[in-house]
Predict the structure.
Amino acid sequence: MNTEQELHPDDVQQHLREVQALLARQKVAEDLVHRQDMPRHELVENLVHKQHEAALRNKLDTLHSADVAYILEALPLEERLYVWDLVKAERDGDILLEVSDAVRESLIETMEPHELKAAAETLDADELADLAPDLPPEIIQDVYQSLDTEGREQLRAAMSYPEDSVGALMDFDMVTVRENVTLEVVLRYLRRFEELPDHTDKLFVIDRDEHLMGILSLESLLINDPEKEVSEVMRDETVISFSPDDPADDAAQAFERYDLVSAPVVDRQKRVIGRVTVADVVDFIREESEAEILSHAGLREEEDIFASVWDSVKNRWAWLAVNLVTAFIASRVIGAFEGSIERLVALAALMPIVAGIGGNSGNQTITMIVRAIAMGQVKQSAMQRLLKKELGVALFNGVVWGGLLGVLTWWLYGSASLGMVMTAAMTLNLLLAAFAGVTIPMLRQRLGGDPAIGGSVMITALTDSGGFFIFLGLATLFLL
Amino acid sequence: MNTEQELHPDDVQQHLREVQALLARQKVAEDLVHRQDMPRHELVENLVHKQHEAALRNKLDTLHSADVAYILEALPLEERLYVWDLVKAERDGDILLEVSDAVRESLIETMEPHELKAAAETLDADELADLAPDLPPEIIQDVYQSLDTEGREQLRAAMSYPEDSVGALMDFDMVTVRENVTLEVVLRYLRRFEELPDHTDKLFVIDRDEHLMGILSLESLLINDPEKEVSEVMRDETVISFSPDDPADDAAQAFERYDLVSAPVVDRQKRVIGRVTVADVVDFIREESEAEILSHAGLREEEDIFASVWDSVKNRWAWLAVNLVTAFIASRVIGAFEGSIERLVALAALMPIVAGIGGNSGNQTITMIVRAIAMGQVKQSAMQRLLKKELGVALFNGVVWGGLLGVLTWWLYGSASLGMVMTAAMTLNLLLAAFAGVTIPMLRQRLGGDPAIGGSVMITALTDSGGFFIFLGLATLFLL
């Protein structure tokens, strides 16, 4: 039963190890490092152990495109390109769809126009649309010319929708039936198919003008008496359908909430124009959360871990620049109190604590509020209630942690008043953090912006500068 | 076609608004705030506008359990409990499964034992197992007693698997067939069903000892000639199956990679014991990324946005405590240089910049490395290569941003040497951040820990203390 194991998840890494072993054996890496500038076909000529190359090629042929993609992502550039060269040309399209954007670029850069065109022509309209942004326009043009009218229509449609819309997730392969036929007829009709589209769990019931009348699940097709008519067993109430302009995120939430496998997409006249499958939704969900996690650390996009230093720098500099500015502002706030610090240098050692804890606590608040807003569960009217709660939490933490630090400060510097300033400053900064953590995303939303973007940077900037100002300010007022 | 709209994603929020409107009209909120201590049935008695209550009950009855759950999450406690009271008892179980953990607790707290038991009894073994952690043990016992032998067997099995294993995602409803029968027989067999299990896209082909022989997709059942035997059309190679002990994350990756809808789970003897469906996988993926995003901000779990101040404090204090400790250490590092700061107070204003930028850059590195490790694409052997790259990026940023700040410092304080110290300190701290960003997760992994947990805290602590030490140290050496 080891065929059973063929696609077992653990085995991708097994496959990866095998490929790496084969690569190592023929010292490809070294071989290539010295020949980077040489065209790829020559490279291949130059390789020593042909039999290893054959073994590698065979290995790759047995692998699912997604696994090849996984392996390509895990290989350093020169080995990646060498392996890419061994992959059967007709699989290029599928694999390009599977790899991460960064890796896709690295592969496309090395492909000849005719290779790219050939790869593109193996894809469906919706897949092509996903790939299009990374392809040179002239390739798209060529492929477009080579399509039939329907294909061109679909490609134009697929490319016309914004990235995060249902239209961008939509594919065009679906099976439609009429409501006035018997299940027997449907069963016979299906037997004429070579294969059904992936994730076909339901057939779309349409009238002669392609209006969606309801859905016939394969389940009801199978469990009902074949003599029955489609109209008797189809579901026409509570059919979930989307418009191509719906936000993809709404579709994703609906798929999650109602456990869908596929759903029809209809135009304004309720004509069926495509469908969304759970596979697309899963990819979308994964990409969304990836993007969110990366953006928290100020990475613009997922990085090819073997990207050049320069590519990485480009991916990261914007966030560093922003933080540099906010840090500089905070530094000027301190600068304004240099006189006080000169007279009581302990302030310099204590101020980062006040700023830091404020930032942490503020990020906790804003993270929670942003998530609640994203779920659409927070109305503006709830703001006051949330504000009260968050301020309560902040006050509690201020008194407890601030108090603790006040005592520590007293003990360290033997000054009760300095300790009290410490406690007061921490409490005030925590209150500031809570206030900002609730209001920033709420205002963002009211102003129609995305409440998530950059909130963490803003609140950290505020609690840094604010923390320094409050602490040094109080100290100047009461201690000097 | 507004029935079509019934479940349209946007409408959940529409439903929510309607419910809130109904609640508002009868001033439930106020009504209840004053009666918090009164038992719930009395509360309901006391409510003024009975007709609004009826309207509300009807509204709730038309809604999908997932939508009711969504609404409950979005309501403040007292309104939530009031609505919860109006929901048909037989739906309690489904809805408890759908709500977030925090909200689930708030609902279960208010339920009588007999209500809980009734709710639990409406659930399948695998659903019950998901709910079990939140239920009082005696309830579980009662329900367990009420089950038949198979049910008990399944419940025991479902509860025996660790949270992040395939066994925990597994359900027990599946359709199995023998390989030596014709498709016609299978079709007739299926017509005997009232309904098929959710997400049945394939039937599991087993021998008389329940060993998995292959899978018969509904597709091949439908497109092939009914005279054919199952064995002729079933897939027995590259059948993806899982063991209940596999990490759930492997299963999730396999579902994503191979676009699965359902997959069999087999024991060591390859006997089919259950299956995993894409619905469970989608929920798992969402929860995983939720948890990751929350943990970045140091939130232990998703918070009921209307939780009491005290609950929130409990959810957040641990992270604040850790950060307090690290901040305190950083403060002591500064304390060690108070002498230098006294003589050159500008240092106090500049040091936070060095520390802050180091932290940001370090978090970018560690985030990227952790993700690559999680995908299993980084071998320990790649460490050197990654280290070289990250150090390269750090050096570049150090020279560019550090240089820029050096000039700014020079201009601000009119001291070129101070500017040079600034540049050097930033470069060194960025190098430190890059080094830690690569090595911390790598070592974590080698030591068999989770590379993700707390990495961000560690690196920030390091770049804070390290940044202060490097900057103040260099200044002490070269400027004083």
Q: What stands out?
A: Chain B has 25 helices and five strands. The longest strand of chain B covers residues 212-217.
